[in-house]
Write a structure and sequence with these properties.
Shape of chain B: globular
Largest sheet of chain B: 6 strands, mixed
Helix content of chain B: 25-40%
Structural class of chain A: mainly alpha
Shape of chain A: globular
Largest sheet of chain A: none
Distance between the termini of chain A: 35 Å
CATH architecture of the largest domain in chain B: 3-Layer(aba) Sandwich
Order of helices and strands of chain B: EEEHEEHEHHHEHEHEEHHEE
Oligomer: heterodimer
CATH architecture of chain A: Orthogonal Bundle
Strand order of the largest sheet of chain B: 6-7-8-3-9-10
CATH class of chain A: Mainly Alpha
CATH topology of chain A: ABC transporter involved in vitamin B12 uptake, BtuC
Order of helices and strands of chain A: HHHHHHHHHHHHHH
Radius of gyration of chain B: 19 Å
Strand content of chain B: 25-35%
Structural class of chain B: alpha/beta
Helix content of chain A: over 70%
Chain lengths: 340, 261
């Protein structure tokens, strides 16, 4: 009798958990859509909601239509894709490194892209149109470099993290050095270091979209592997996972996701670390739910923050990275305190 | 005896340091085998070599006559399950979540199971008496319950061999016996071959059919526990002086009384 009751109560709890996870997903989806839509509505020229809906349904050639389709729309899409890429990258890295502080930064993405970007902006300002591909190459080179340095009979998470810290410190010294020697040209570089969506348009969408699409599919497909890896290397091996190969492949996916994002918008540090955690606190650590949740929350956070960054001191526009850290960090601390 | 697993002159090491030297051992099919020996003698290392967690430097290990290196990771995990000493798990994992992970080697690329998948999970929960606790969070369970949950996960793999690294460490006496008796039940009822590294010699005498004694990376002896686990062996392998007593069930009990002078 007692067992039956317990079972019934437990069953009840089980249903609740799935319902909870689904409602969180729906909530995040709603936030992502809302954030994206708000980002279309706000800007220096005032366009009303009705006009926007009209323009979206019947694109015309009037100036307002141009603003929506060629300025705001691509910017919103870039923001959403960047949110997806950085969040997924962080979520993947946190699983394979089994470290809560893992984010695209630790595999050298930020410092690699940062140094490459700063070199272009400060030393070769004439080549600024090349900044995206160069930053991408820089990010991937730094990641590969850390990987090679950390390799010793396979990859141990701790060695990657420590090699990442060392390489990042080395590259950051280069960034600081350049900024001090050429302090007259620092402004653009500073904007790049903080990360922003200003003047991002369709070409940027085209750069980031394939990585986002492929990365999303691969990440969602590997959710079961990421779940098993959370049990530790030895248990994962016992369950039939080739841990070394899985870790290399997943790190490569995370690196591509983050590098494509960072090369387009600069060093948005905050999203990759905090969004996966915030999603995890609300939805749990089952990656089949966590990955889509992190992707949706990433869209919401980046698009909301960018809208905010545009309107708060209008007509001056703040880089979205500043807003994100300013609003996101306290919110994250709130979640953290509540949970513990 | 038929050997399900055989090690043929294996050397196993970490970072060039050889820990297990030229070890040959046959694990009998359908029996409970205990591996015992002093700390650092290489018993866990041997278990990890058998489960392919650590590679061999020399020699080979066969499962039913086939080199274990010829299996794919997935095939191997369908034959053999291992429970390491202190496995980790996310704090929001329920017993059922964990047991479902045991189905991983049987599932397809995207983690989809076939129609019998749920049945195997159910079966594993029932075998370990965890069905009533399926929705409990793993970290809210007592040590003994948690160990049963991990065994359920291993059972969901539907292995022919279950390898356990010190399954009773950190458990109180009652839970130790509970785990041991569960292993005996699984062995007798399902014909599951069990190989466990344990420290408690009296458990080896009471519950194991076969015992392998390892010291300094080398096999000292192997055979039936009641024949080889004597006070003389304890003095030789552990440098401990032990008295022998007869238990009510007729088996011997070893009680260490002093270090060997």
């Amino acid at each position: 009798m007692a067992n039956k009751e317990l079972d019934a109560a437990a069953e009840h709890f089980g249903i609740n958990r799935t319902a909870w996870r689904l409602s969180i997903l729906i909530l995040f989806l709603f936030l992502a859509l809302l954030g994206s839509f708000l980002s279309l509505t706000k800007g220096s020229s005032v366009i009303t909601m009705e006009q926007i809906v009209e323009i979206l349904l019947h694109p015309g050639s009037d100036p307002q239509s141009q603003i929506i389709w060629n300025i705001r729309m691509p910017r919103t899409i870039v923001g959403a894709l960047v949110g997806i890429n950085l969040s997924l990258s962080g979520a993947i890295l946190q699983a394979i490194m089994r470290n809560p502080l893992a984010d695209p930064h630790i595999i050298g993405i930020s410092s690699g892209a940062g140094l490459a970007g700063v070199v272009i902006m400060i030393l070769f300002p004439a080549l600024e149109y090349l900044i995206t591909p160069v930053a991408f190459v820089g990010a991937m080179l730094a990641a590969v470099c850390i990987y090679i340095l950390a390799w010793k009979n396979g990859i141990k998470p701790v060695r990657i993290i420590l090699a990442g810290v060392a390489v990042s410190a080395f590259l950051s010294a280069g960034i600081s050095g350049l900024m001090i020697f050429y302090s007259d040209r620092v402004h653009g570089a500073l904007m790049w270091m903080v990360g922003g969506l200003a003047a991002r348009s369709w070409p940027h969408v085209n750069i980031i979209l394939p990585y986002a699409a492929i990365g999303l599919v691969l990440a969602l497909g590997s959710a079961a592997y990421l779940n098993i890896l959370q049990l530790g290397d030895e248990m994962a091996r016992g369950l039939g996972i080739n841990v070394e190969v899985t870790r290399i492949v997943m790190t490569a996916i995370a690196a591509l996701l983050a590098a494509s994002a960072v090369s387009v918008v600069g060093l948005l540090g905050f999203v990759g670390l905090v969004v996966p955690h915030a999603a995890r606190l609300l939805i749990g650590s089952d990656y089949r739910f966590l990955l889509p949740a992190a992707a949706l929350l990433g869209i919401a956070i980046v698009t909301f923050s960018d809208t905010f960054a545009r309107v708060i001191f209008a007509p001056i526009e703040l880089p979205v990275g500043i807003i994100m850290a300013f609003l996101g960090a306290p919110f994250f601390l709130f979640l953290l305190r509540r949970e513990i | 005896m038929t050997a399900i697993l055989s090690a043929h002159g294996i050397d196993v090491g970490i970072n060039k340091k050889i820990i297990v030297h030229n070890l040959s051992l046959d694990i009998p099919e359908g029996k409970i085998t205990a591996i015992i020996g002093p700390n650092g003698c290489g018993k866990s290392t041997t278990l990890k070599a058998v489960s392919r967690i650590w590679p061999l430097e020399k020699g080979s290990i066969t499962f039913k006559g086939k080199d274990i290196r010829s299996f794919s990771h997935r095939e191997f995990a369908q034959c053999m399950a291992i429970l390491t000493q202190s496995p980790q798990a996310p704090t929001d994992l329920t017993v059922q979540d964990l047991v479902e992970m045991g189905r991983f080697p049987h599932r397809g690329f995207l983690g989809r199971g076939d129609k019998d998948d749920a049945k195997h999970v159910e079966w594993a929960l029932e075998q370990t008496n965890m069905a009533d606790m399926r929705h409990r969070l793993l970290h809210t369970l007592s040590g003994g319950e948690r160990q049963r949950a991990w065994i359920a996960m291993a059972l969901a793999q539907r292995p022919q061999v279950l390898l356990l690294d010190e399954p009773t460490t950190y458990l109180d006496i009652c839970h130790q016996l509970e785990v041991m008796q569960l292993l005996v039940k699984l062995n007798r009822e399902l014909g599951l071959t069990v190989v466990m590294v344990i420290h408690e010699l009296n458990h080896a005498i009471q519950y194991a059919d076969y015992v392998a004694v390892i010291k300094a990376g080398r096999l000292v002896t192997c055979g039936e526990p009641k024949e080889i686990l004597t006070s003389k062996l304890l003095a030789e392998v552990f440098k401990v002086q032990a008295d022998e007593f007869a238990c009510s069930n007729g088996l011997r009990a070893l009680v260490p009384v002093d270090l060997c002078k």
